[in-house]
Amino acid sequence: MIVNLSVTQWQQLAEAAIECNPFYEPWFLLAHIEHLKTKILRVISFGQSDRLDAFFPLERDSEYPWKWLPGVKVLRTVTSPFLYLSAPLLRTEGVPSLQPAFEAAFADDPSLQAVSIGPLYRDSELFENLQRGLAGLPTLAWRNTIRPYFSSALRAGEYCTLHLGRQHEKKLLKKRKKLGTFKASLDINDALIEDFLQLERAGWKGEEGTAMACRSDTEQFFRAVMKNGATQARVRCCGIQDEKSQALKVLFTNSRKDFGFKICFDETLHHLSPGSVLESYLVEQRLAHIPRIEADSCAKSGAELFTRLWKTDRILTELLVFRPNPAGKSLRSLVMAGRKLKLFAPK
Q1: Is the N or the C terminus of the chain less surrounded, counting Cβ atoms within 10 Å?
Q2: pTM for the full predicted model
Q3: Which of 3.40.630.30, 3.10.180.10, 3.60.15.10, 3.30.980.10 is the CATH number of 152-311?
């Protein structure tokens, strides 16, 4: 299983994958397994002796609608409240081997009826390659959701004027002057990690019990991710600081894209909108970068922090791959009928 994989080859695959996904890189996923006790039942992986071409970590999917279908076993690519993208790691060279690998997985487990891949971007090259590589098996795209996503060809000034409007842009600039200094990249060390944990816990997430420091397992997981990701140059923390931190955001980053992981701010400064101000600095930074860096908010559609600053979305979907036999095809027909009747809408 996952322990038998070469971490070096796994990381090399992540860097060469059709679609980058930091949540499936070893520095993140191994910490998730260790501290949050993720139960990976199977890994579909293949490649050459010196190269890994595919990595599909799978867990049991017992959510709606499967819990209403006794005896139907479905696996899905691993997800959790902290895994914001479940796109598998796949090289272009591995696409022709997809169907044989899935056929072998179904042959190994006679009770397995389907595998759900995702959520992943529906308009992505990865989704197209998955459909192409699995064309000989019954498949179905379903469970669509919308994700705020940043992508723009405008210059910084043009973007702010167009999307914010002159009046709101002026208000934002005034708030900037009353806050501290924007720091694009803070040194990730024990002091900064502790600062983030305490700032997040002092806000509404602490009151709801969802802050990382509210539970020992999530706190240790966060500390491990920050240190491991910094070692791999995959984690960046930016913020607004004066005598103390007023807003902090953790990003997973590479040369192609930023992924938002966690953000927190001093809620005693709510009237100055430190979270929105921090995001406005990041928008300017991305628009000034050549080549342009896109960003996945990793937030739900309608998230207040992004509705005004970010004006683009991407659709996330899941690709269901069914067992290539009459039972699998019947299950596909059942899911299609349920979807048309709006019985299988995401809960």
Answers
A1: C
A2: 0.92
A3: 3.40.630.30
